[in-house]
Amino acid sequence: MSTGFQYDVFLSHNAKDKPRVRKLAERLKAAGLRVWFDEWIVRPGDMIAPKVDEGLEQSRVLLLCISPTALASGWVALERSTAIHRDPANEGRRFVPLLLEECKLPDTLRRYKYVDFRGDNETAFAELLVPCRAQKSETPPIAISTSTEIAAKQLEPLAVLERDFSAHKGYIRSVAVSNDAKWMASGSDDNTIKIWELDTGKRQTTLEGHPTGVLSVAITPDGSRVLSGSFDKSVRVWDTASGRELAKLGGHTAAARSVVALSDNARALSGGFDKTLRLWDLASRSCLRVIRCGTDDGDEIGHCTVNSAGNHALSGHRNGQIRIWSLESGECLATLKGHSELVRSIQITLDGQYAVSASKDRTVKVWDVEAERCIGTLEGHETNVLCAAISPDNSLVASSGFSDRAVRLWDWKTGTCVQIISEGWHKFTPTSVTFSPDGSRLVLGTGDEDGRICIYRIADVRPTPSVEAARRYVNAKVVLIGEGTAGKTSLAHRLIEDKYVVRDRTHGMNVWRLELPLPVDATLEREALLWDLAGQEDYRLIHQLFLEETAMALLLINPQKDDLFAEAGDWLKALRTAAGKHASRREPARLLIFSQIDVGGMKLSNAKIERFRKQHDFANWLPTSAKTGENCSDHGNQGQPSRLKRLIAESIPWDKLPWTSTPRLLSELKNAVMEMRDKTEIRLLRFSELRQRLEQALRVERFGEADVRTAVTLLANHGLARALKFGDLVLLRPDLLNGYAAAIIRSARAHSDEIGCVLEANIYSPDFDFTGVERLKHRPQQFSL
Predict the structure, then answer these.
(1) Among 355, 419, 429, 655, which is disulfide-ready with 367 (CB 3.0 to 4.6 Å)?
(2) CA nearest 651: which of 611, 698, 696, 617?
(3) Cβ atoms of 620 and 554 closer than 8 Å
(4) pLDDT of amino acid 388
């Protein structure tokens, strides 16, 4: 937790009071205090709002200069900016009202003892200095653990640095090692490819010809040729022995981002930002096949690889998807979904069964290629993961994080991080990483100005202990679906709080953590999130987008209706559609839940229910009443988990869900954000405020800004938080956006000319119809959302 502040005092004031406040700032500075005063800090060309936010975050005491003009300018706005300093739990900060002129104080300010500065005398100034000066008893700053410190504690590292050397005059984008493990190639932004002896680090030759940076290098299995892809849109073929350019393969209309040499020594595959994969014949220098991956920006290719059989290719895309292609037909065989941002690297095991991908979303994912599903997620990098590599014996994965200056070595089958490589020199910024084919070495290139290469010797014995405390868990998405009058929200509150809550129909969606009776497993934690999706017609279009990756669907039926299953078909179709879009094509497990049976019991015989259950593959069915608690109340079950909770826990296919391995600290941060999200009224806040609140909630933890941003990103990957792209804002309830979207759809449908549109200007109008939609309290926040 960081409690060191750059400024002692932040002076908040109205422009009309500036002459008087300027004198006060000078007096405070003369008294030895570090003062944030706008005239001294904000320079011409600076954006004022971010500067003010930064100053508030870095100041220990907020001095609010009160006058009639200050209050007239809008205390509501001031209220928001002073929230961190006024929080009574935030012991490291102080909020001091300073009365400059007689005025009527708002109720919010009357609670605070103010300093009467109307007379501007020495007594008042002396009183002001007391809270502005840091007290000796204040908690000293706690050092933040870094990856370097963690790595230093490792007594017997798996990878030991053999040598490092300056290799290029720029960013190294790619490294590759020959099949005989005797030499390697590197490609750089300095427009060159260089060949090096692996044992000595001695340069053998330099390949020149690209007019722009080299993005990817590959070596044919027989070692006779080097392939390169470049920003110049070309793929080039080089003779290893002579260094001569053999061919320039043209066709890509944008950068050739990735190039792979196939195992037959005769073909190569390239992938480009032009959204195409191109299969080349190296002998004839001709393009055998062009695979067009799409037309959207999200279809841009970040990386590609080919299995050892040479018949299937995998491509990673800007939209986070991974696609499997037949190189014989050009057909897309499967789409793997899991990453939320650009896939920067993808590698496949020698047997073709598994693949590993690295993404801009800060995660590494493990895939079962044959089953077409994600089986695990490795968390720990604090920024972009640029590259991932698999050891030849399939036991290790190496991943490189550029900005967090770390290479992580993973036992990917258990999710254990067995080593964190973070060299002490200043500009250690790993970009590309690969294992030698014999598994004896790990080679990585860096993004330093002098383009360094580091070569590590890999120990024969694989360590099993993790270098950091980690948590391995499975998260099950449990979704409540059904028509709008089925009582989903009341049942959700009964499951979550064991209370009967009567609400109008849900608008948008709600997400809660659901406690289930689960067996203790020392190697894996299990948890569930309950999603309550509004059932009205206006929302179904939106909510079908949120059915992907559903582990368990609870279809609620109102037993009092004449045609009980009339609308069930629409939801079942939506589940099938969502499953079809997902990589595994596995439909979620589902339970048939009859609600509100307290009203008039069941109108349908058990035999008919059983027929419907079997016909539509429901695991089971259960009658419930949120009002009386029948089959859904823990309290009504003598304090034991309700029958419905037990049924949910037993029916979730836990063994088919992907696991996530995350460092303990990131797990604590994510849980604290979720706690804040679930148990407070905080919905939208600046990142600086979120960090301060986390520091108060997790006083004994050591973390920095990068850790908090990583936690938010990882939550965003699951739709549980959202970092907005402006104002450094974090939305803790992304589900609120669905209510806004539904209101817009409703307005478009109600258009007088039935043309299905709404004017953008109308959406920002204060009288726009947001009936039934949960809104943020402050008008500026509403406008932002």
Answers:
(1) 355
(2) 617
(3) no
(4) 97
CA atoms within 13 A on the CB side of 45: 0
Which amino acid, one-letter code, is at 52?
V
Q: Which token pair is 612?
A: 């419907």
331, 374 in Cβ contact below 8 A?
no
Residues 6 or more apart whose Cβ sits within 8 Å of residue 241 = 224
In the chain the first and final C-alpha atoms are separated, in Å, by 30
Among candidate residues 68, 89, 79, the one with its CA nearest the CA of residue 1: 89
- Interior/surface letters 486-502, b for 16+ CB within 10 angstroms, e for the rest: bbbbbbbbbbbeeeeee
* 3-state SS assignment for residue 354: strand
CB atoms within 10 A of CB 163: 12
* Type of residue found at 79: E
* Token representation of residue 18: 């500036």
Q: Are strands 470-481 and 552-557 parallel, antiparallel or unpaired?
A: parallel
| Residue whose structure tokens are 């040598």 | 163
φ, ψ at 253 (rounded to 5°): -100, 5
Q: Is 155 a residue whose pLDDT tops 70?
A: no
Cβ contact 702:747 at 8 Å = no
Mean of all residue pLDDT scores within the chain: 86
CA 52/CA 35 separation, integer angstroms = 13
Contact (Cβ atoms closer than 8 angstroms) between residue 626 and residue 652: no
CB count, 10 Å around CB of 24? 23
For 226, phi then psi, to 5°, come to: -115, 135
* DSSP of 223-275: SSEEEEEETTS-EEEEETTT--EEEEE---SS-EEEEEE-TTSSEEEEEETTS
* 565-616 confidence digits (pLDDT tens): 877 888 888 888 877 655 455 788 999 999 988 887 787 888 989 999 999 9
Measured distance CA(306)–CA(325) in Å, rounded? 9
Return the closest-CA partner of residue 656 out of 578, 573, 585, 720: 585
| Extended beta strands in 337-405, E state | 343-348, 354-359, 363-368, 373-379, 385-390, 397-401
C-alpha count within 13 angstroms, C-beta hemisphere, residue 322: 34
Q: Which two tokens stand for residue 310?
A: 């040479």
Q: What is the pTM of this model?
A: 0.77
Closest by Cα among 590, 477, 480, 587 to 527: 477
Q: Taking the CA atoms of 463, 469, 474 and 477 in sequence, report the sign of the dihedral they define.
A: negative
- Dig out the tokens for 592 from the structure: 């048939």
How far apart, in Å, are the Cα atoms of 754 and each of 368, 538, 746, 751, 758? 48, 16, 12, 5, 11
DSSP assignment letter at 18: H
